[in-house]
Amino acid sequence: MHLDHDVSDPAAPTISFDQFVAVDIRIGTIVKAEPFPEARNPAYKLSIDFGPTLGTKRSSAQITVHYTPEELVGRQVAAVVNFPPRQIGKFMSEVLTVGFPDQDGAVVLFSPDRPVLNGARLF
């Protein structure tokens, strides 16, 4: 989940609205979170419920600095759901959970400030 960008990076090149809507970002609720000791960088294996249409998807997320598995369960998070699955060791990550770097580069999850329906799409 970590991209090597910081707040001093210039804005990305201009894209069209069609390019923006091609990235399908949805809200889901974490239903399971467990350590992922086999990962190259510290990470958790997440199972995220995106509602009846998309179902439950799995994600590897490098969010161990600010979160424990116990506090993640029940939390709503945003994720890109239309990237191809990515093999991470023996784990298949199906969605990309999104967040922002804190001042030290550790990931802070992106979540709605009020509950929304699982599967709701960002627009």
Structure, explained:
By secondary structure, the protein is mainly β. The protein has a single domain, classed as Nucleic acid-binding proteins (OB fold (Dihydrolipoamide Acetyltransferase, E2P), Beta Barrel), CATH 2.40.50.140. It is built from three helices and nine strands. The protein has helices spanning 17-22, 51-54, 69-72; strands at 25-35, 44-49, 56-61, 76-80, 86-88, 91-93, 96-97, 99-101, 107-109. The strands form three sheets. Strands 3-2-1-4-7 form a five-stranded antiparallel beta sheet. Strands 5-6 form a two-stranded antiparallel sheet. A hairpin with a 2-residue loop joins strand 5 and strand 6. The longest helix is centred in the N-terminal third of the chain and has 6 residues, at 17-22. The two termini are 21 Å apart. The mean pLDDT is 93.
Which properties best describe this structure?
single chain, globular, 123 residues, five-stranded antiparallel β-sheet, 11% helix, OB fold (Dihydrolipoamide Acetyltransferase, E2P), mainly beta
Give a nutshell description of this structure.
This protein is mainly β.
N→C terminal distance: 21 Å
The CATH C-level name is Mainly Beta
| CATH architecture name | Beta Barrel
Q: What is the CATH topology?
A: OB fold (Dihydrolipoamide Acetyltransferase, E2P)
Q: Beta-strand percentage?
A: 25-35%
The helix/strand order is: HEEHEHEEEEEE
The main sheet comes to:
5 strands, antiparallel
What gross morphology would you assign? globular
> Oligomerization state of this entry?
single chain
Using only C-alpha atoms, the radius of gyration works out to 14 Å
Give the CATH superfamily. Answer: Nucleic acid-binding proteins
Total of helices: 3
Number of domains: 1
Name the helicity range. Answer: 10-25%
